[in-house]
Amino acid sequence: MRRTRWIITAVAVLSLTTAGASSASQGSSNVTIDLISRASAINDLVDIGPVGFGPGDVYVFSDRLFLTSAPGDQIGRSDGRCILIDPATFRFDCSGTISLPDGDIMLAGTFTLIEGTTSVGAIVGGTEAYRRVRGQGSVELGPFEGPHDVTLELVLNP
User: Fold this and answer.
1) What's the rounded Cα separation, in Å, for the pair 66 and 101?
2) Could you list the residue range(s) of the whole structural domain that residue 138 is in?
3) CATH number for the domain including 14?
4) How many folded domains does the chain comprise?
5) Are 80 and 92 in contact (CB under 8 A)?
6) Could you tell me the sign of the dihedral formed by the alpha carbons of 118, 110, 20, 29, in that order?
7) For all residues of the chain together, what is the average pLDDT?
8) In angstroms, rounded to a whole number, what is the distance separating the alpha carbons of residues 77 and 15?
9) Rounded CA separation 140/28 (Å)
10) 120 close to 141: Cβ distance less than 8 angstroms
């Protein structure tokens, strides 16, 4: 039954990406996907060097992803690592991979990891259905464990 639900969700996501169904879409090759991100057990800050927050510390995470239209059904995962640049502002340089049923989307950028902030990063590539993707992704941070609002603004045919 779980596999059937995953296949139905994959078809729904694929139809979103191929139909360009979104209020922010500007054409058949532009797609916006709105997601909710929730923390998993993999959500750690690795303290490098002196004790306490310092440049070079690494934040590693793996979040569960849900469509905003179906917040109870996990459709993917967001894995990433962020290097702390400025402890005073909690600014990190991050890279990550969003894994969806029809492919992966890779992102990179500078993020401020403080509840209530919105950070925007570049979509730098992808695999399978997203192999030619570009665009940007934004994350509005909720509480540490989530949920966080994630918006992917994709250009699928550059």
Assistant:
1) 12
2) 2-155
3) 2.40.480.10
4) 1
5) no
6) positive
7) 83
8) 19
9) 26
10) no
